[in-house]
Structures are given as C-alpha cells and as structure tokens.
Specification:
Blueprint lengths: L9 E2 L1 H8 L3 H9 L7 E2 L5 E4 H15 L4 H13 L4 H42 L4 H4 L7 H14 L1
Antiparallel strand pairs: 1-3, 2-3
Amino acid sequence: RRGRKGRNMVYTVGEMARLLDVSASTLRYYDKEGLLPFLERSSGGIRIFQDSDFEWLSIISCLKQTGMPIKDIKAFIDWCIEGDATIPQRLGLIDQQRQRVLEQIEQLQATLHILDYKHWYYETAQKAGTCAIHETLTEADIPPALQDACRCIKGAAD
C-alpha cells in the first residue's frame, strides 16, 4: 500500500472506504465513536487517511464482522494506544472473540448440515415427482452423512 518510491499515500474518506470495501459513512461513524484516534485532519477539518491507517481499519472491520460491540472495539483501540502494559487485556479480548466466532462457525455448520439434508430431500422428491416418496423411505434409505440432520429435524418436530 505504498505509493511510488515508497512515499506514504494519503486517502480521502471515500478512497479509504473503497479500499476497505465499506461505506464512507461507516468510516465517519467509526471516527465519531472514537475508534480512529490516530486519524489526522487537514487544516480545513477533512479526514486524512494514510497507508498506516489501513491496518487499524482492517482490524476494526474484522472485529466488527465478528459481532463485537463498538464499545469493546473502542476499548481494544484504547489498549493498543496505551501500549505494551495492556497486552494481556488485548489478548483476552481477542481470545474471547475468537471463541465466539468458533461457536458461530459450529452453529453455521449445523445449519448447513440441515440444508444439505433438505436439498437431498427435495432432490429425491423431484426425481419421484412427489414429496410423498419420503413416507416410504426408511432411515437406511437416507445417505449416512445426512441421517443425523434428519433425526435432528424429526426430533424438533416431535
């Protein structure tokens, strides 16, 4: 993200927003919420982003995508600015959020498994020309990889 001959590039809100694939209003909101204390402004008060801001903004975007509340992201940024004495707090926050993401992945995997079962269910019904085909099938007729999802759905319906 360096300009020609290694110079640090300067970006407007719109340019930085495009680089990060977020809206300019998102960056303005982050600034308003105190997430961008490193941000410089021109003499006219216009926000000026530099190459070095890209990493900060990428981390903020990552944390936001994990569902982390703005107040926790602000605490993280503040701890980063405070320095090495806050490494344990930062590590704890990152570990907590990482665990949350792992739980979300597990939930999404379970959801995908049920969708895979329903895909098979409707694909089978389409070939037979009716959903009634499933009334004649036994658990052994269901692909082994989809049997747990079937039991999960049937158990929830009981």
